[in-house]
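Ticket #4471: structure export looks truncated?
Reporter: QA, pipeline team
Priority: medium

Steps to reproduce: submit the single chain below to the structure queue and open the exported record.
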Amino acid sequence: MGGVTVIKAIVLFTRKLCESEMLSFKTYEELFKANGVELLRAYADTEEEIIEAAKDCEVVLDMLQPITANIINRLEKCRALVRSGIGVNNIDVEAATRRGIMVCNSPAHCVQEVAVLASAHIMNAVTKLSRYDNAVKQGRTEVFDSPRRLSELTVGFVGFGNIARHVAKIMLGCGCRVAAYDPFLPEEVFVRNSAKRCELNELFGDADVISLHVPLLPATKHIINKDALAKMKDGVIIVNTARGPLVCEADLIEAVKSGKVAAAGLDVFESEPVTKSNPGLAALPQIACTPHVGYRGVEAIRELEETVADMVVRIAGGKDPAHCVNIGNLKK
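Actual output as written to the record:
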């Protein structure tokens, strides 16, 4: 290795998804080898399996498995936890920070793909495209519900980060009004993106469409529930391409059945796959379901692989990775 100090990096695969659907890093093996990274792979779902697989590794590459404080505290050699995705809600960042472990992610690789999917769900709910498609294929041609005019609607965003702002641009191009709730952003962001800044309850009351774009935190779990739905317009549309547990599915089902919610578009669910975990949700024709595909675009996966590979190489070289969510606290 010409004096290069070798570190071990492990990719943790879950048995719920086959390896071909995850980052394989096969195209990066030579890159890693040249930069002192020995790449390992392991299927590991339980805490003990993860600890056993990663105990000798300096870098742990994870996508879906919860990385708990118990796991973190027992990975004595770990220097970095790299999430192969945008959110880090499956990693105990505080526990990692206490141990001096970097927590890294890829914050932008699928912004366009998720935004386009969210926009497609909005347009599908408004035009009733998938419902008409199903009806025609079943030999029915009646118009059971007339579509809305998109430009007459207000699209409200809960969370106004990169993905939501990309959706807002698409909706503005369709003539929609845009409103957003995000207490962490300065006023200039809303002005620059032609969005009315709202408090959450105001947004619920004003918007014809609610699109969710917040991380899963204790404060955001079931942010769409019976009480929130009661504050919304009759015939509201709900779209969730962020995190499944943001929506209380039992309350959404009741709201759809009562007509309070006219339609919904969901790419994420409280438990996946949705057809097994909540068949009642999947059976409602007013709800269009996609199988958590927002992040899986060809270009998005390629960019994700490049981003993660670059971070691993930088970590191996003793440099700060490009995207470390707790770097400020580590350097205090």
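Status: closed, not a bug. The export was complete when the record was re-opened. Leaving a note from the reviewer for reference: The longest helix spans residues 298-316.
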